[in-house]
Amino acid sequence: MASAIMGQEPAPAPTTASFRANVDLVELHVSVMDGLGRPVGGLRQEDFKITENNIDQRITIFKHEDIPVSLGLVLDNSRSIEPRKARLDAAAVSFVENSNPDDETFIVHFDFDARVTRAFTQDRAILEKDLAGTKPYGQTAIYDGIALALDTMNNARHQKKALLLVTDGIDNMSKITLDQILERVRREKVTIFAIGLLSQSGGLKAEEDIEKIAHASGGRAYFPNTPEDARVMMDIIARDIREQYTLAYLPSNPMRNGTWRSVRVHITPPKGYPKELSTSYRHGYFAPEQ
Questions:
Q1: Running DSSP on this structure, what letter comes out for residue 39?
Q2: Residue 11 pLDDT more than 70?
Q3: Whole-structure pTM value
């Protein structure tokens, strides 16, 4: 379970891999980190191994490059966020500024309900203005916010997609349930990174729920103590997204039956690299159907 960060130079937990499947090709965007939470470059295709349902797969595409991403900011606008809102908004702006300049970004705010407060844009000044223009009130509809963000991703221009969820409490207002959003997240090809400032509200139950959502997407949840630590985490996430490896393979199983397929990525570090490298990614996908 991810823990609150301590000090100025935290070592983040393993970061994430986003995931895409079509009729023929399965594609993964894999992050690799060392023991201090730093991205690891310079690995070669032969250092990676992919298995699907415990069967080795032949890697047909291997790249390590910074590609544009479609991003969604899914932000808590409930009344409890108000004392920290300005600092969290500044952290979200920093996250966007540290992302690929060709990224496109939208904003979803949630309180009593969820709404898109800015459609996809590349104008960072507009994003900053929209963030500053919201006034916190009401309760916390986290699951509805995520669902709306996934809907909004239908308009994305880029194949690589990620959400940044920021909240300080437990869901107490959504129309959909945790189980329903988990099922949807497993079927979507969107990675969710979560920042939970839960020291003042929500507690262990909120932390567990947020971790379940992030893990189901192939993402990761972080639980900093302060908005300043949250900013550090968001900057690390932005850097990590840009440092991912892209791997793809043609599944050896040609069946299109809609069943779940388990995927694992293994790395054998070459000479001169740390013996233990961290990876985190979506651990499977649903096969296409006829």
A1: B
A2: no
A3: 0.88
